[in-house]
Amino acid sequence: MRLYNTMTRKKEEFIPLEPGKVKMYSCGPTVYNYFHIGNARPFIIFDTLRRYLKYRGYEVKFVQNFTDIDDKLIKKSNEEGRTLKEIAERYIREYYIDADGLGIERADVHPTATETIDEIIELVKSLIDKGYAYEANGDVYFSTKKFKEYGKLSQHNLEELEAGSRVDVDERKADPMDFAIWKAQKPGEPAWNSPWGPGRPGWHIECSAMVIKHLGETIDIHSGGLDLIFPHHENEIAQSEAATGKPFARYWLHNGFLNINNQKMSKSLNNFFTVRDISKQYDYEVIRFFMLSAHYRSPLNFSDDLMEQAKNGLERIYNCLENLEHLKEHGKECGMSSSEIELSKRLVELKARFVEAMDDDLNTADALAAIFEIVKEVNSNITSVSNSSSAIIDFSYGMIRELGGVLGIAQKQKEKGLDVEIEEMIEKRQQARKEKNWKLADEIRDKLKDMGISLEDTPQGVKWKRV
Length: 467
Ligand code: AMP
Ligand code: ZN
Fold this sequence. Notes:
Rossmann fold, 4-stranded antiparallel β-sheet, elongated, alpha/beta, 15 helices, about 15% strand, binds zinc ion, binds adenosine monophosphate, Four Helix Bundle (Hemerythrin (Met), subunit A)
C-alpha cells in the first residue's frame, strides 16, 4: 500500500515499524460544540484508513484525543455558567452520537487532556531539563531555535517564518517563534498545580504526551486536516523528538479542506454547519458516502447537488442489495452455471480494482467506482430466481457487503420487526384484492405509503421498498 507522506511530499510504500502492526494517532475535536461538517472529513477518512488497514490484515492500535482544555472551552464555560468538565462531557457525548451515526468506529483510546496532566507535566519538565524549554513567569516556552529540524514538516525555515509572520510580540518569550507548552493561570481560569505554579497545558503538548503515553515514542501514522501541518504538527514533532531523540511519526497524512458552495466555511459567512444540522436533512450514511466520493487530499465542496448525488449513489447500492436479498429468499439452492462462473470472475477482477484503488493512497473515489461496476454487473446479470443460482446471488451479495464494510457503508439490514409488520399488511392487501375489496386494498396501500413504503408487482410476488 502506498500513502502520501506530507513529510517527504511523496507517495511512499507503507511499511509499519513492527511487521503486521500499525500504531496510528489522529488529532481529535475540541469539545466545546457539536462538530462541524469540515471536522467530519478527517474523522471519516482516517476511520476508513483504519478499517482498510484492518481489512489488509494489520492489527491497528488507534488513538484519537479530545481536547478538553482550551480558550474556546473556557469561554463557553463562562458564558454558560457551567464547569469546563460539564461542557467537555456534554460535547463528548454529542461527539459519540454523531460519530456513531457516521459509522466512525470508536478509537482504542480516546484520551482527554485533563486526564493526561501528569504526563504533560513530566514532558515539559524533561524539555526544560534538556535545555529545549524555559520558564518565564509561570509560563513555559519551547525554544524553536534549539530544535535544529524545526520546520521540516511544513518545509518552512525559521527565518522565513519570522519574516512572514505576524507573531504577537510577547515580552515573556525569548524569541517570537517560541510557543507555550505550559500557560500560567489567568484570573478566572481553571488550573492544575505544576512545578511552575498553577496553570494549564498548551494545546500542542497534549498530543505529544498522549501519543507517547498510549502508543510509544515512534508511531506509524499521524493524521489530521491540512491546517494542522503548521504550527500544530510541526510543534508536536519538535517537542516529541526533542524529548525522546527518536523520530515521532513515520507517515504524516493530511486531508484537504471541505468548503461550502466553494467558500470557506465560517460563522460570519453564515455557512457554518454542524453534522447534527445536516443529519436532519440527510442520513448520516449519505454524509459518509459524500466524504468518500472524493480523494481525501483534494479540496471537497459541500453542496445540495453533491449531497443529492451521494444519496442517489448510496440508494443504488442498497437497491441492488435488496434485490439480491429478495432473490435469496425466493430462490432455490444450486451451484453456478458456466456463465455465472464467468460473471464471478469479472466480479473478482472488480474487487481487485477496489483494492488497487485503496492501496493507491486511499483512493476512495475509485474504490466506490469499482463497487458501482459490481452493482452494474449484478443488476444486468442477476435478475430473477429462474435465471440465477443461489451460489451467484450469495457470492455477489457477500462481495458488496464486504467492500461496503471496508468503507463503512451499505451495512444496514432491513429492520426485521418492522418488516414482519409490513409483510403482514401486504399479505392482507393481497387477500383484500382477491376478495375484490378494493377499498380495503387501497387503504392499506395508502397506509404503507405514509410509512414510506412503495409496492411493486413482480413475477415473484409483491416487492416493497422504502422510499
Ligand atoms: P479542530 O476541532 O478545529 O481542531 O478540528 C478537528 C479536525 O478537523 C482537525 O483534523 C482539523 O484539521 C479538521 N478540520 C477543521 N476544519 C476543516 C475543514 N473545513 N475541512 C476539513 N477538515 C477540517
Ligand atoms: Zn494533535
